[in-house]
Design brief:
Blueprint lengths: L1 H19 L14 E6 L12 E4 L5 E10 L5 E9 L1 E2 L5 E2 L19 E2 L3 E6 L4 E9 L8 E12 L11 E12 L9 E11 L2 E10 L5 E11 L6 E10 L3 E8 L6 E10 L5 E10 L1 H46 L1
Parallel strand pairs: 2-11
Antiparallel strand pairs: 1-3, 3-9, 4-8, 4-10, 5-6, 7-9, 10-11, 12-13, 13-16, 14-15, 14-17, 17-18
């Protein structure tokens, strides 16, 4: 019942926004709220052809990360700016948007620990105004191998224009990566498969693999292929590409299985890229009937909740149309 109450409140909140909120931007119109960002690259920038911070630092060197935030819309806007550590998302991309993100077993200090003062600032801009936001960082007191990775993440709520027929509540987020280099030593990535467990995701069931990159270097342009075997069942073959893994990070990678049955699953999981990285890992996992039943109940509940939302939205739409017709014809009779 609590979940149902939450769903209902969200649905009715959305329907109210659709009815009374401002409408979204129409083609050719300038947005009422929008903004842009530009990194001011410091003198210790290594690659001057990129728009993110790619910095060579000496022990205890102080650097100021400067970011220009410009209001390109017609109304005032409030923009949050955070300096966060990089992490690997469960879809195997590098994320910078979590204020609480931590590295995994890193020998290098986290970027967040190098900041002097607050890691989050809010800048309020009038239409057409530009302000500079600055974060002071101090490099570690000794040289380090690999990289320290994070990002300046900006987030702002943006309203819509009044000529479109549907209101859309949006947030615009930009990221400027921050990469700190010290030693020029070559560092090899260290990707490991720690464990696996049956899991559900987005109304499907499958196996989630707990992985770590225990090296201070990121892995880019990755591809993955998986072969999952179960006696009596057809093998599951899975492929994906354009993956990224952050330095010193852990994450959970999910592979869906069409018909998850009890028994022993043997997985051969290979990550590779065109730069020469390749690693194959294996896992054996026992899946019980009880676990499958629990996952099925979870996915059925999620599917039922989605269906309920669609039904309620349809009823709300019909109600609003009915009210509009009623008031329209009532108004005509009064004339």
């Amino acid at each position: 019942m609590k979940k149902l109450a939450v769903i209902l409140s969200l649905v009715f909140g959305l329907s109210t926004a659709l009815l009374f909120g401002r409408t979204a931007q129409a083609d050719g119109d300038e947005p009422k709220k929008s903004y842009s960002v530009q990194a001011i690259l410091p003198d210790n920038q290594l690659n001057k052809d990129v728009s993110y911070y790619d910095l060579k630092v000496e022990p205890n060197q102080k650097t100021t990360l400067k970011l220009l935030v410009s209001n390109t819309g017609q109304e005032s806007i409030s923009v949050d700016v955070e300096l966060n550590n990089a992490y690997t998302t469960n879809s195997a991309t590098i994320g910078y948007d979590k204020y609480s993100a931590k590295t995994y077993k890193s020998k290098n200090p986290e970027l967040s620990s190098l900041v002097e003062g607050k890691r989050k600032q809010t800048v309020k801009l009038k239409a057409g105004e530009t302000q500079q936001v600055s974060f002071n960082i101090t490099a570690p007191n000794k040289e380090f191998t690999g990289i320290i990775l994070g990002g300046l993440t900006t987030t702002a709520g943006v309203s819509s224009n009044e000529k479109s027929k549907v209101n859309v509540a949006n947030q615009i987020r930009y990221v400027k990566g921050v990469v700190l280099h010290s030693k020029g030593d070559q560092v090899e990535s260290n990707l490991n498969l720690k464990s696996a467990a049956p899991n559900d995701y987005d109304d499907s069931v499958g196996i989630a693999y707990n992985l770590t990159n225990e090296a201070p270097i990121n892995i880019n342009d990755l591809k993955v292929k998986a072969k999952i075997s179960h006696k009596g069942l057809k093998d599951t073959n899975y492929k994906a590409e354009n993956l990224q893994i952050a330095p010193d990070s852990k994450f959970q990678y999910y592979v869906p299985i069409k018909h998850l049955k009890p028994g022993i699953y043997t997985t051969e999981l290979t990550f590779y890229n065109d730069a020469g990285f390749s690693k194959t890992m294996t896992n054996k996992l026992k899946v019980t009937q009880g676990k499958i039943q629990a996952l099925d109940e979870s996915t059925q509940e999620a599917s039922s909740n989605k269906t309920l939302i669609y039904v309620i939205l349809g009823l709300v739409a019909v109600m609003f149309v009915g009210l509009w017709v009623f008031f329209y014809f009532s108004g005509k009779r009064l004339k």
